[in-house]
Specification:
Layout: H1 15-21, E1 31-38, E2 44-45, E3 53-55, H2 57-70, E4 74-80, H3 97-109, E5 114-119, E6 133-134, E7 137-138, H4 140-157, E8 163-164, H5 171-181, E9 190-195, H6 202-208, H7 228-240, E10 244-248, H8 254-263, E11 268-272, H9 274-285, H10 291-305, E12 309-312, H11 315-322
Parallel strand pairs: 1-3, 1-4, 1-12, 4-5, 5-8, 9-10, 10-11, 11-12
Antiparallel strand pairs: 2-3, 6-7
Length: 323
């Protein structure tokens, strides 16, 4: 009797065969594209994030029209105000940069793309922290009121989804209550639930001028070695009313993403953050890696680990390549 030889390579022999049996496929429908809108008079490229810009409102509208035609389903908005203060008032002012941008986008593109504003104070505070400072520390509960005001402000302007990223305790419950009280019962919340105090955020802080002016964010963002705590944070956000949850960053936290997928049934997002993006760009510009291939591999890893939604600055290039 002939010895049985297993030959898995039979299913790898051609590109067509590999496509036929492929287990995980990323499409542009999985992607959420983060964008920056600025109160400055001119748009400009962010030096540490090649291909990513701080757009004026008018330029943002023109760019999002192109993005909608490419078929991307959603953008996330981060605002850079003209002035910053101790309480981040630009983050919840009716005439703030993000509400202005949302209203302009609605006129320009209608409902052709989802608008998902980030809700946090770090871009708007002079000290760069994500909440009000009291006695040298970020005060949790007083910050909740301001985050809730920002959420309602953005919903009134026309936001489709509210995405709190501050990591204050109880902020999902506060935002859900404020939205419901003001008639936005159908506006979902995408919570940054497992957001770690990571070294991968450096380029973003340049983009948003949001680096802390003292200390760091380790007292409210999660400690990177912790796994079980992430599951607790996610469970709490869902209990408080989050419709979708997120793990951030992505590459160093694929294990957390997988565990979140195994334990929770709500839509799960992952943020392919600025430092991850910039490392790929830098290596590609030096000829050390093949950019498109590496990007596709990274995005596939996120989806294979369980992500339903991938926030990535690579979204535009991916959509252009894959149609």
């Amino acid at each position: 009797m002939r010895e049985l030889i297993h030959r898995p390579r039979r299913l790898r022999r051609s590109a067509a065969m590999r496509r036929l049996v492929r287990e995980t496929v990323v499409t542009k429908n999985d992607l959420l594209y983060p964008m920056f809108v600025t109160a400055e008079r001119e748009s400009r490229e962010i030096p540490s994030m090649p291909g990513v810009y701080r757009y004026t409102v008018d330029a943002l509208c023109r760019e999002v029209e192109k993005i909608a035609k490419l078929g991307l389903p959603a953008i996330m908005l981060f605002g850079i105000p003209e002035e910053k203060d101790a309480v981040g008032s630009g983050g919840y002012a009716e005439d703030g940069i993000v509400p202005r941008a949302i209203r302009s986008l609605r006129k320009a593109i209608g409902d052709s793309i989802l608008i998902v504003p980030d809700v946090c104070l770090c871009e708007y505070t002079a000290h760069g922290h994500c909440g009000i400072i009291e006695k040298g520390d970020v005060a949790n509960d007083p910050t909740l009121e301001l985050l809730a005001r920002a959420a309602v402000c953005y919903a009134e302007a026309g936001a489709d989804v509210i995405a709190p990223s501050d990591m204050m305790d109880g902020r999902v419950a506060a935002i859900r209550a404020a939205l419901d009280t003001n008639g936005f019962t159908q506006t979902p919340i995408l919570a940054y639930s497992a957001k770690y105090a990571s070294g991968f955020y450096g380029p973003f802080r340049e983009a948003a001028d949001s680096a802390p002016q003292f200390g760091d964010r380790r007292t409210y963002q999660m400690d990177p070695p912790n796994r079980r705590e992430a599951l607790r944070e996610i469970a709490l956000d869902i209990e408080e009313g989050a419709d979708m949850v997120m793990v951030k960053p992505g590459l160093a936290y694929l294990d957390i993403l997988r565990e979140a997928r195994d334990n929770f049934d709500v839509p799960l997002a992952v943020y392919n953050v600025s430092g991850e993006y910039s490392m790929v760009k830098a290596a590609a510009r030096n000829g050390w890696i093949e950019e498109a291939r590496v990007v596709d591999e990274i995005l596939t890893a996120f989806k294979r680990a369980g992500a339903d939604i991938i926030l990535t600055y690579h979204a535009l290039d991916f959509a252009r390549r894959h149609g």
